[in-house]
Amino acid sequence: MWLPALLITVTSAAPPAPSPMPVPVSAPKEVPKEIPKDGIDAMAVPLVSFNSDFGIGYGAVGGMFVYGEGHTPYQHGFGAQVFFTTRGIQNHYLRYDGPQLLGPLRVEARFEYKREFRSPFYGAGNLSSPEFSGDVDDPRYNYDKGAPAAWLRLRGPLFGEDHPLQVYGGYLWRYTRVSPYETSMLAQMKPLGIEGGPTGQLQVGVLWDTRDHETDPTTGGAEELSIRMSGQLTGSRYQYLGVTLSERRYFRLSSRFVFAQRLAVDALFGEVPFFEWGSTGGVLYTEGVGGMSSVRGIERNRFSGNLKVFSNSELRFHAFDMKILGQVMKLGAVGFVDVGRVWHPGVQDGAWHKWHPGVGAGLRLSRRAAVIRVDYAISTEEGGHRLYMNFGHMF
Predict the structure, then answer these.
(1) Number of neighbouring beta carbons within 10 Å of residue 286
(2) Each residue of 308-328: pLDDT tens digit?
(3) What does the pLDDT look like over 220-234, one tens digit per residue?
(4) Backbone angles phi, psi at 39, to 5 degrees
(5) How many Å apart are CA 329 and CA 326, to the nearest integer?
(6) Residues 6+ away with beta carbon under 8 Å from 79
């Protein structure tokens, strides 16, 4: 249950007509979406909410998009969140996104603090904890974790502003404090990483982006290869390497229907601490398998390991436009099917066809670059029905 969003738009007294967004040379020949030349969209969501992975939550999350002529999809993007839940989770952050802050270079930054009295740990592999009954509050499958972090990333086109090939590089630093409960699986297994400590990561990647619109695409796609490296030289206690491959495609079926598909593969090598088993590299933050960013309907990070594969299929429907507080908003719906699995060395992962599915439906409320999503999903796992609310499309 969540309170309605508040959206405020500020423009000049006599704003000029919006100009069309440039379409990359390899993009499908569709009518480009209009991008405003100036003005501000600000959206704030009171987080009096319920999320099946986090419990009853309270706080606020908001985003602000500053538009400027010659900047797409916006000139500056800001986001902030203050969030607490009844399951002992805190998730606070500040983020910034400047698509053309340094000429053609995009600058992205984020500062965050996460505290979880019940951070999930079910062991490793695709068949982990088969005895789990669905009680996410069972201390056997939780531990106490704190993790302040910050990251900075530069991204830009390699062969000119309108070319779809982009490269990026950045640095992430996180300090993870681990406090296992005495009766927990983590205390019994004592995997690498139980001591906690710093993990510094250098990240590099390439992205081939032919989407017609970054935050609410209807055609084109985004293919990505990402590499992240951690070691003594990066300020990390652990030495490991991560490689991520992902494919996102969007097909406009009609004026109201869009089919969206994502496929992601993530592999980790070396001395990987257990709290990184569920992480995935790339431009989009993803964790799993299980949760609102990988396979909906399954408990967050229910299955984790050194190799993860997951797929997300969405049929998005633009129902109608309406006015809220005097602003035109798009109301839509989505039906989705998610599926994923993991592999991990030294454990039994089951037959090749042992995948974990989740299906469901949701609502979308959007204005220009701002999108709110609410999803309900079910799965074949114990306790497999979950509700999610978040800011922005899943992919």
Answers:
(1) 25
(2) 999 999 999 999 988 877 778
(3) 999 999 999 999 999
(4) 110, 175
(5) 9
(6) 61, 62, 63, 64, 93, 94, 95, 96, 97, 391
Using the Cα atoms of residue 285, residue 289, residue 291 and residue 294 in order, give the sign of their dihedral. positive
Cβ atoms within 10 Å of 191's Cβ, excluding its own: 15
Structure tokens of 371? Answer: 């999108």
Of 111, 196, 104, nearest in space to 152 by CA: 111
| Distance spanning both ends of the chain, measured CA to CA | 23
Query: At 375, phi and psi to the nearest 5?
Result: -125, 140
Nearest Cα to 157, choosing from 87, 228, 207?
A: 207
Sign of CA dihedral 58, 388, 316, 161: positive
The model carries a pTM of 0.81
Domain boundaries, the chain: 6-391
Is the CB of residue 180 less than 8 Å from the CB of residue 140? no
The continuous run of DSSP H or E covering 248 comes out as strand 240-252
What is the dotted CATH code of the domain comprising 6-391? Answer: 2.40.160.50
